[in-house]
């Protein structure tokens, strides 16, 4: 694919961001693109690409239905869409090129529930490819990842690589819902070497991080407080105030003691409660997450968070429903694969600086796939592709420098060829 | 109207609760009922019934539109509905019967954003007239009030009353949005005596409160916190967390010192914030209200609440947008009118006990109309009609004892006749 | 006693304020004054004046010992002091004047743990009788009450009153610790009419409140949080932070919902915790109080406060020791006694305005004595004597207008004479 | 010194723990021990040992006076004590042994304001050398450090070391008050190599950490809230509640967002406020500290903490006095010195395991002295001496395994000899 092909494709994905498990248009577009460009051995779509019973954090039916109908109003292939119905999104593409190792590449494809900036300093807005889905945005570069996945498949098809390439177009990374069902599918079982990729992460265009470590283990949890409503003027004492319980919980969640063994995180990312200004709130809800530099640290945070939630509820005589959400473990990049990536990057046009190692400082459910491969005796490596981004990840002004998409394709395809030679 | 007419009518209103400024079906049904039963002198509908520019707390267009379309799917008169479009609801009915005082009766007609109980111990559920509008409910008896308003008109039409009766079918009481625009309309100007009515309020069936006082002055306010999003795992320090600010505000709102001069109230009735579990929340919102036994006490609470909101925002480096909402003053019932009501009640079938005075302990924007009449030299009185109610006002199991609807009609119509005699 | 005698005596008490159960000098001075001026029938001192086993909120030995030794360094009578050792303070003086009713007068004698203002605009400072006990102060006028008690005894001794006068010099009103043991003593049993008195309460000099009601029922409670210390830098996670638990409790205490049935109060009056900036705090303590317009409302607050404390502790995995403290009930003034006071006040020099009734809005353990007398079939009345006070009660600039001391003596002695006539 | 000499000396220090700037007995005992055992070239005591004007966090006079008088009641030398009056504690001992480098050894000598355990499982209690100063304790092993300092001086005096040894007996480490004035004194100026030492830190007996890094930069700060008192029952609204402000601050302090660049810490180590249960608290105080893995991270925390304090005060209309307290920077151990320590440790009896590097994870004001030496072109190294400790540092059951005192003396004296050889 030419550089302008890659850019056009990325912009198409950018225009139609779909959050976790709602990647209907995105999956259909991937399938369409692959089928028109390549002669694949296998193309598993939707329920065939993932172990559906392991899906985590799936939205409710009404929500899924809204996004599904929206996809149906596009030119997406109806037949493909039908296979995705109910939130079975994603795809696995298999390209066989003779004897050799089975190399995997994992790219994630989902957008975020974040409104996109609309002023003319924001390039997607001024260049006309801003999100057309109000309140949703590709604010973490997965549009570029998806494009890279397609680009690498084509590059390998045109290369001397011998072996098998599997590209995992993974849904639902942002809510850590899709990594596990993909890692539980049969498709991962024969993968010998796995690469995963992320653009940006505060690395500028021209920089490659050969092997990323420092993934924070993460767990979501959702707390629902159920109290008792009452008229806030006439009988304030008769209510059991779920919003007071929630506010107490939020304050104390962020105040969980820091831990000497390493980094911890906590966030009350979504809160809501109450129904009218004159009713003592009967219900409230918090969608939270905790993280830790190790699984133990994450579990320390989880346990403390649970204690905070339960006692905040009890303090206001509220019941509480605490639902553990999706989780992702930690993982490390294998040094030999990282060396290959570094060496290839050193010979790639446009790459100006190579970091051997860096810490992610965030979480990723690619770790599920990395762990699965490593437990089977294989190797895994998470590669960073620098890109200038004006706003931070997950903010309304995030954007990628489109030049970096080509860097990603070149470095990854080069590394895959080299793996074919060396293993 | 017979007792079973009244009950059937009340159940129809109960089945279609419409919250503030969305009383499209309700208004159309009132108009239809009045036109089919009575020969009115005037019937002012929607924008003709209220001073539209004084409407407070009007929902956004999309919200109004949804409720409007829902009403259009019923058998409501299209012509009437069209006059209400945009949230101009309510009606004023005028019945002239010769020389005499102009007596007003104010009834409120809106429902609440409160889901209705659905088990068989809840009478509207078992008897088949539970709310058909999911998430909305007549949980404060305004369905009975509306029915009483129509019943009184018919009773007076059939009586010897000489004078003019004006019934104000007021929208948007629950968000104190409708009292002011109705009090600012020309229709209130010539009213000599005004009665208002409320069922229940913890008084059992058979009890009448001749004059209610102790209205709490009330003010709404809405706070929007605007921070800065960031990735909660990778850069927690880069965010400015609007939800932490909001939680701090909520905790300290309820902790505003009690006041020696009398009762105060505060409620954070609706809260919401954040967009995803892994994004440091950029925005949060609180819809709150404060009340006081006097206007001064309400203002004390308002000032303190403002201070809490501003400093909670500043603590997390968030901007804050503080919008003062609707307000309602206090008011008192005139003793002479209350005496009339008490005397009439003493002669009314089904009335077993009469309280001369009681405190509301809540707020009401009927006070706007009462004040307007009293400032013009007239009298006003707020009458309580006891009704057994299984659940408290504003809760999912609230219901009225339908026998009390007849009591309300009889006492109010009787009092209006007596006013005609005595003034 | 002349006006200047009264003033000199009050200033002596003012100079040596002694908080609850530490009134060693004060009691000895009362005894000395009474013995030198009057020929009493009985004078019960310390353990003979109160039912010692019912004392509440007694300080620890070291604390008592410090105040005791301080009193020994004055010219107070050693023999009297020895009878008070261990915190058995207070006195009951009995003056018999023949046949007639037994009338009681209760005055409280303790100071407050409040530093006194030291600038020249504060009269006790500029006139040279500021507190000599650092950190303690007569900031509620009990120095004037004690003086009035002595003045009334002398006035009655010189009057035509027939009957018996008992003056209860009650210790430990401020921590509601002394009312109960005095009410449990035998001395109250034969009292037919009881008067109690308070100066100030926002009433100016020249105003008399004949009968005060609206005493808030009150209960103290003390919470001690016990966590686990750890090095705040090296192992923050190893601690169980008692100060975080305490802060959570304080925030939520003040946020206990207001109650529709009447006034409630809550205060976390004393807090302390931790030992060093680099140690995660192991312990914390809150001395709190709750009040209610009725005993039920006070108990509502108490129960909610307990729930807050327990769950705040549990949230931080701390143990908690919750000690219920002293309590005082509500009470009302008998109208017939209030009428007598009003009538006498109307004839008293310096009295310019008489209020028949007023609400205290605070608490008082005189209510124990009032209840005891009323339960025995007698009457009780709590009298307010207006005095201009520059600062509020319990603040560093509180002071009394010494002219009001004479008003108190005249009105109370006059009322006692009249009681002797009428009963 | 024999092993039993060292143990006896350590127990004597343990029995008389003296917190920061109150090390009167301790300093006198050091002087006495050194003078009786050694022929020193110089012995600088108190104001001669430190740059007094740079002292930080000095207690108030009354506090110092109490500890001073307590020391005077022991057998400590009066003449020495007099030189220390006013809190000028500590000593610098200089032992010249011919040509060669000037090697410094820094040991800290202060105890903690922490009560010591008193049950028989706590060795100092069962063996009869528990703290005799109620509420104070050697809970961080500075008694062992002091003993090691004396032991090393004697060991070097008996060795072949050529050069000069200076031992800095530093006061006030725990409140980071003494490091700076010692680093500002002239005594540090000619030091070529500096060793510092700490026992324990979760390393067991027999383990030596050759070079410790990872000192957290630290800053203290003290916040005093000043509100307005009022009677909590009669006029709750008239107060401005300093304790509510303080509780809000504490909750939000601990909730300052974690930082991606590294470890941060915060602790509200001491809190206090209010004066009586029935007075709305006029004042409250928090003694807090913040730390960071780098100075920038510490400053991030400091700035956020300040924002929290100021807005919590403003929320309750309180004034606030924010006093920045003592600070200590970060520092690193020089590899060459650490190598020498590791080599010597490898040849030392009782040492079973050597760690080349470890992170402190806490703070230390030895960093002031290390920085001063390194800025002068010298080297510094912070050595860890493992010791089994039943309870954690800064807890009531902390104790050292006395066998490790000998290890400390041997390793440090050996390293000093080797430095004499190699530099």
TrEMBL record, chains A, B, C, D:
Protein keywords: Hydrolase, Manganese, Metal-binding
Kindly give the Gene3D superfamilies that the UniProt entry links to this protein.
Zn peptidases (3.40.630.10)
What are the GO cellular component annotations? cytoplasm
Binding residue positions for Mn(2+): 140, 142, 174, 198, 394
Provide the GO biological process annotations: folic acid catabolic process
Domain named Peptidase M20 dimerisation: residues: 222-313
**Any one GO MF annotation of this record:** dipeptidase activity
Which cofactors go with this protein? Answer: Mn(2+)
Q: Could you tell me what the cofactor note in this record states? A: The Mn(2+) ion enhances activity.
- Which Pfam families does the UniProt record give? M20_dimer, Peptidase_M20
Family matches, as NCBIfam families: amidohydrolases (TIGR01891)
Provide the protein name. Amidohydrolase
């Amino acid at each position: 694919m030419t550089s302008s092909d890659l850019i056009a494709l990325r912009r198409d994905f950018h225009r139609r961001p779909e959050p976790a498990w709602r990647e209907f248009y995105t999956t259909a577009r991937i399938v369409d693109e692959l089928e028109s460009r390549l002669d694949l051995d296998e193309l598993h779509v939707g329920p065939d690409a993932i172990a559906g019973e392991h899906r985590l954090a799936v939205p409710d039916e009404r929500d899924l239905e809204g996004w599904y109908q929206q996809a149906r109003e596009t030119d997406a292939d109806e037949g493909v869409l039908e296979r995705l119905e109910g939130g079975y999104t994603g795809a696995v593409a298999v390209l066989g090129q003779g004897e050799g190792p089975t190399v995997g590449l994992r790219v994630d494809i989902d957008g975020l529930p974040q409104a996109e900036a609309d002023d003319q300093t924001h390039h997607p807005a001024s260049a006309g490819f801003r999100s057309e889905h109000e309140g949703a945005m590709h604010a973490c570069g997965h549009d570029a990842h998806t494009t890279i996945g397609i680009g690498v498949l084509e590059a390998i098809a045109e290369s001397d690589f011998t072996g098998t390439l599997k590209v995992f177009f993974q849904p639902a990374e942002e809510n850590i819902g899709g990594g596990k069902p993909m890692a539980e599918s049969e498709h991962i079982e024969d993968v010998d070497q796995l690469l995963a990729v992320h653009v940006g992460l505060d690395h500028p265009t021209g920089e490659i991080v050969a092997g990323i470590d420092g993934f924070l283990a993460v767990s979501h949890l959702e707390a629902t407080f159920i109290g008792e409503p009452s008229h806030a003027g006439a009988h304030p004492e008769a209510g059991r105030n779920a919003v007071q319980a929630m506010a107490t919980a939020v304050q104390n969640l962020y105040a969980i003691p820091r831990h000497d063994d390493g980094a911890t995180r906590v966030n009350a990312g979504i809160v809501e409660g109450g129904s009218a200004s004159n009713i003592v709130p009967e219900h409230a809800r918090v969608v939270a997450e905790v993280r830790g530099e190790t699984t133990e640290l994450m579990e320390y945070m989880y346990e403390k968070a649970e204690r905070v939630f339960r006692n905040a509820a009890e303090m206001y005589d509220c019941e509480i429903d605490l639902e553990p959400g999706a989780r992702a473990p930690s993982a490390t990049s294998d040094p030999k694969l990282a060396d290959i990536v570094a060496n290839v990057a050193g010979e790639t046009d446009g790459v100006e600086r190579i970091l051997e190692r860096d810490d992610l400082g965030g979480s990723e459910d690619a770790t599920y796939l990395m762990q699965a491969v490593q437990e089977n005796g294989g190797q895994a490596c998470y590669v960073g592709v620098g890109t200038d981004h004006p706003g931070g990840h997950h903010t309304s002004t995030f954007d990628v420098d489109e030049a970096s998409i080509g860097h990603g394709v070149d470095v990854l395809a080069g590394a895959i060829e080299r793996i074919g030679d060396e293993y």
